[in-house]
Design goal:
7 strands, alpha+beta, 142 residues, Nucleoside Triphosphate Pyrophosphohydrolase
Length: 142
């Protein structure tokens, strides 16, 4: 029996924008992510995945929820983590690694509706759950 692949997807925000890449194979917008190998820490996988696929340096501050992506023949268990930006100015200009992403950009949350039909299911799920996470954080702050 083959086991599912564990993947770390990272939500990186810059003000009101979300870092997304257009998958070179599917053409869909997605979060930066990477597969976990044996003995790798999730934070390391997330940090490396973001840096290698977008050129953006982040610190992965923690996992916020788990999701699942089942599209036979693949089955991925996705740990969604938060990435805190390191650097400023030109260091925040994303550069796509073309074998992974055909394009990488900051997408304003208010513009997500314009590309909603081109976002993969894991990212759609992550954006929805991230909204709930942020609501809960705001409630705690009150």
């Amino acid at each position: 029996m083959e086991t599912p692949q564990v993947v770390v997807a990272v939500i990186v925000t810059n003000g009101s924008a979300l870092l997304l890449g257009r998958d070179a194979k599917t053409g869909r917008w997605t979060l930066p992510k990477g597969g976990v190998l044996k003995f790798q820490e999730l934070q390391t996988v997330g940090r490396t995945a973001v840096a290698e696929t977008t050129g953006i340096a982040v610190e992965v501050t923690g996992s916020i929820f788990i999701s699942e992506d089942i599209v036979p023949p693949e089955h991925n268990v996705v740990v969604v983590a938060l990435g805190k930006l390191l650097g400023s100015g030109d260091a925040l200009k994303p550069v796509a690694r073309l074998d992974v992403f055909s394009e990488v950009r900051w997408v304003d949350f208010r513009e997500l509706g314009d590309i909603q039909h081109d976002i993969d299911s894991i990212t759609t799920d992550a954006i929805m759950k991230f909204g709930l996470y942020m609501q809960a954080k705001m409630q705690e702050a009150r």
